[in-house]
Structure formats: C-alpha cells, structure tokens
C-alpha cells in the first residue's frame, strides 16, 4: 500500500508526539490503527468479490462448453441408434418373410403346466432377543442367582452393614 521506511515512521511519530501530546497520542494511534484495519479488510473483501465473479464467469463458460459437447454427443448417439434400429427392422422384415411358412418350433413340454418348486433354506436364523432373554431368566432361576435389581437397592453389602462402626454422640 504505502511504502514508509522505519526512519520516516519515527519522524512522523515524533511530530505526532509533539503536536498531540502524550495524553492523546495512544487514543489517536488506536483510532488510526482501527481505520487502517478497516481499510485493509475492505480492500481484501473487494479482492475476494472480484475473484469470485471472475471464477463464476469462467465456470459459466465451462458449463456452456460442457452443455454443447453433451448435445453433440446426444445427437450422434441418437443418429447411431436410429441407424441400428432401421437395420434391425429391415432384418426382421426379411426374416419374417423367409420363415413365415417354417416348421413348428414350439417347446417340447408346452402342454405341461409350470409348477413352483420350493427349495429348502440353507440358513436357519438364530434365536430372537426375546427368546434369549427368556433363556437367561430360566438359567438364573435354575442356578438360583439373585436379581441384579434387588442387589442394587442396598446401600451396603449385608456383612458391611453389620460390621459398620457406629458413631455415638
């Protein structure tokens, strides 16, 4: 932006100190710094806006070129498909006239009806969550294990409650 050397800045600072005085110089320096910062932010914002607009115009040009290429490709494919379709129609018409009086090529088992065949499953699914929960409950009853909920209600273990020291006042 502006090209000042260190000596020039020192002279400007000394003149400002003499003119403004030591009480107002920090406040003025802070205000000037804020203005310079705002100016730099504004210049950077303008630069980014210009770059964004340039990129946008380049992208629009690129999009138009891609659209034109896609249209030419589509028209060439449609032309090729039309040619192949015409050849197929001509071939089927030729074959239809040549073999119209041909023999019967029906399937040998055409009199039989189709029956659905069910194949055995290769994979047997495992037990569901409910079945597993029932099995765990059955095993707990069989082993006479206490419920986890009943034990969590107690504050201390049974022996600790008995052996706990009492504080008497």
- Shape descriptor: flat
For the CA atoms, what is the radius of gyration? Answer: 46 Å
Fraction of residues in H or I helices:
55-70%
- Give the rounded overall mean pLDDT: 80
Number of continuous helical runs: 5
Uncertain runs with pLDDT below 50, 5 residues or more?
none
Distance between the termini: 84 Å
Backbone structural class: mainly alpha
Describe the structure.
With 169 residues, this protein is mainly α. Helices cover 69% and strands 0% of the residues. It has five helices and no strands. The protein has helices at 6-20, 25-98, 129-143, 148-153, 158-163. The chain is flat and about 115 Å long. The two termini are 84 Å apart.
In brief:
By secondary structure, the chain is an all-alpha fold. Helices cover 69% and strands 0% of the residues.
Provide the descriptors you would attach to this structure in a database record.
5 helices, 169 residues
Annotate the secondary structure layout.
Elements: H1 6-20, H2 25-98, H3 129-143, H4 148-153, H5 158-163
């Amino acid at each position: 932006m502006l090209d000042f050397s260190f000596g020039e800045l020192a002279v400007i600072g000394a003149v400002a100190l003499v003119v403004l005085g030591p009480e107002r110089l920090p406040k003025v320096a802070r205000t000037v710094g804020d203005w310079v910062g705002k100016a730099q932010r504004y210049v950077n914002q303008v630069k980014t806006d210009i770059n964004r607009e340039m990129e946008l115009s380049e992208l629009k040009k690129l999009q138009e070129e891609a659209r034109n290429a896609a249209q030419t490709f589509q028209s060439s494919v449609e032309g090729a498909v039309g040619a192949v379709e015409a050849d197929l129609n001509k071939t089927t018409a030729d074959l239809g006239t040549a073999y119209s009086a041909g023999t019967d090529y029906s399937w040998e088992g055409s009199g039989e009806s189709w029956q659905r065949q069910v194949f055995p499953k290769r994979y047997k699914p495992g037990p569901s969550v409910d079945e597993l929960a029932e099995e765990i409950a059955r095993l707990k009853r069989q082993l006479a294990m206490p419920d986890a909920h009943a034990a969590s209600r107690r504050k201390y273990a049974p022996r600790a409650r008995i052996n706990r020291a009492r504080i008497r006042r």
